[in-house]
Amino acid sequence: MGNAVLDAMAAEDEGRANRQLTEQAMLSVTSMFEPPAEQATVTIDDIVAHTSLPEECVRAVVERFRLDLGTDSPIDVVEAFTSGRNPLRTRPLIVGADGRLMLPHPALNVFAVRENIEEHLKKTAPVWSQYAKHRGDLLESRTHAALERVLPGARFRRGLEYYLPASDDEAEAADPSKYTKRAEGDHLIVLDDVAIIVEDKAVALSALSRGGKAARIRTDLTGIITKAADQAGRMRDAIERDGGLRTKNEGWIDLSQIREIHTIAVSLDDLSTVLTATAELVRAGLLAEGNIPWTVSLHDLELITGLVARPAEFLLYLRRRRNPDVTVMFHAPDEMDLFLYFFEACLWVEPDPVQVRAAFPFLPEPTTAELRRYRTRNPAFLTSRTDALDQWFHTQDRDGARSALAPKPAMVPSPLAPLVDELQSRNVTGWLSIGATLLSGATDVQHKFARHGSELLDSPSPEGRSLTVPLTASVDPAEGWLFVWATHPAGADSEETDRRFRNYLRAKKHQLGLLRGVVFLYDQSTRKLLDICYDGHTGPLDAAQTAILSSLRPPSELHRSIHPNAKRPQGGTRNATRHKRKR
User: Fold this and answer.
1) pLDDT per residue over 21-41, tens digit each?
2) Rounded distance, CA 10 to CA 50, Å?
3) pLDDT digit string (tens) for 314-354?
4) Is 431 helix (H, G, I), strand (E, B) or coil?
5) 3-state secondary structure of 414
6) How far is Cα 397 from Cα 317, in angstroms, rounded to an integer?
């Protein structure tokens, strides 16, 4: 084809137009898309020779997957295909009158194998029940394995049976020991102050849904997405209401330390274009705005948990992905496009400054510029970002030299990565949630955070020094944090210094109404990170902490700023780089 086209072009350029050469070029192009039957088809003998399988086995497969059109004309087949009744969906193998075989497109094959064999299994109830159970067990075990990779040290519970109030009277009494309604959850994962509730859905879209029948699509999505969200939300509400769960096997599970709960719905079916349209699912009534799980296919979950370099990245993605505004501001055809954009720009959506002020009343009123910037946000359409991922995926099992040509996609490097890793290696209480919060900041803010310890140590004080930063980048008060960098003076009692800053952290949190905080305590003599003190206390203060309150600067003196809590996105939405520091 190349030679024929070049010859015809050369003749034209030289002013000697040659009709024969032109026709030959056109014919060569056409033949590439419409090859002769001998080039586009194979025989059963060809397959036997290529696979070394017995001829009877090959013939059995051909008969199982051959398309039998009966008396249908080509027009009938095309009309059926375009109306959702794809005759190739379960039988994609075309056999000509001469016995030669052709597969029109490889994208049909995997789905055809599954649906065709499932049709056969459904004819025998005991076998189908065994197969359906296997699907569920497979999904449950692989979901567990995927999450275990990114949540080391977490407590995993599977098939948890717990109790809920069965009536208004039981709900009003709020005594879990007297609840009588039994419910079940697939996975409950707890790591310090973070709980992740996962529901597995091994059911598949029906043939009618795959054919585009709107009513059946809604029914199937309700069974996969809505039911999973309701089940996960039920457990989440119980933990938030009662501070724990009364279970059938363990009795009371105390979860009063939980400050952050995420819900995930994992599907065995790949529903990429559906699962990335969270906002549309809410608009369609399939999800409630106050109960939005991260809905993801098992395949994408396994990919994502294999790509993240540290657990804090996964938690941050979970936080961002469950934000209902994300799929309003970012339109993507595939979950992996959203995730790879998260690697690039953290999937940040600027919150409504009015709602942020309502969540954190100590902040000043939003400025006109802030309100204008929020109102003028523009949605971004994310084009495919998976080329590098595809290259890595298809070379990861090959020899090292070949794999080196396809590096593993990674998050934009963070100056706080060493601190995040140290939190995990020390197994500090709250290391996962602290690390995710550190990584959430804009790149310039992360650089400032990385310098705070050194800057305090560069100007040592006999009483020690400190720097306090409230993080308020959400419309949810539960997502507020208080970060404190402090120094331990040379020669001072380390336990006294530790106690003093712990009391200060708790008192300042109480004053600002923040639920979680952390102190990074550095030693002035060695310049090393001496201690990391997490605090998630939400009750009343003791006498010593109450006494500290009167010595704190009032919240009204805080600088006007809202910490951006995100890397600056590339295109789409914009966020200001705003940062607050106050002792």
Assistant:
1) 888 899 888 888 888 888 889
2) 42
3) 999 999 999 888 888 988 888 999 999 999 999 999 999 99
4) helix
5) coil
6) 27
User: How many contiguous H segments (helices) and E segments (strands) does the chain have?
Assistant: 27, 15
Q: Which of 1-15, 385-399, 412-426 has maximum average pLDDT?
A: 412-426
d(C-alpha 111, C-alpha 164), whole Å: 40
Determine whether 106 is exposed, middle or buried from the number of CB atoms within 10 Å of its CB (0-12, 13-18, 19+): exposed
Please list, in sequence order, all residues whose beta carbon lies within 8 angstroms of the beta carbon of residue 51, skipping any fewer than 6 positions away.
58
CB 487 within 8 A of CB 457: yes
- Beta-carbon contacts of 8 under 8 Å, excluding residues fewer than 6 positions away, are 18, 21, 22, 24, 25
pLDDT for residue 187: 96
Q: Which of 268, 269, 286, 270 is nearest to 278 (CA)?
A: 286
Helix (H, G, I), strand (E, B) or coil at 432: helix
Burial of 443 (0-12, 13-18, 19+ CB in 10 A): middle
CA atoms of 274 and 281, how far apart (whole Å): 8
CA distances from 537 to 174, 257, 485, 509, 510 (A): 22, 8, 19, 9, 9
Chain segment 472-520, per-residue pLDDT in tens: 988 999 999 999 999 999 889 989 999 999 999 999 999 999 999 999 9
Tell me the HSE value of 253 on the side-chain side, using a 13 A CA sphere. 23
State which amino acid sits at residue 430.
Answer: G
Q: Collect all residues with Cβ–Cβ distance below 8 Å to 470 and sequence separation of at least 6.
A: 360, 362, 480, 481, 482, 483, 512, 514, 558, 563, 580, 582
- 457 vs 170, 385, 405, CA distance in Å? 56, 43, 43
- Helices 19-33 and 2-13: crossing angle, nearest 10°? 150
Query: Distance (Å, rounded) from C-alpha 133 to C-alpha 130?
Result: 5
Q: Which residue has the higher pLDDT, 303 or 205?
A: 303
β-strands 260-267, 294-297 pairing: parallel
Tens digits of residue pLDDT in 64-104: 999 887 788 888 888 888 888 888 888 899 888 888 999 88
Mean pLDDT of all residues in the chain? 88
Which residue(s) pair with 134 in the sheet?
Answer: none
Q: What is the DSSP letter of 538?
A: -
How far is CA 3 from each of CA 8, 9, 18, 22, rounded to the nearest angstrom? 9, 10, 15, 12
- As given in the structure block, the two tokens for residue 35 are 């090859």
Q: Which residue has the tokens 């706080």?
A: 416
C-alpha atoms less than 13 angstroms from C-alpha of 355 in its C-beta half-sphere? 9
Instruction: Report pTM.
Output: 0.85
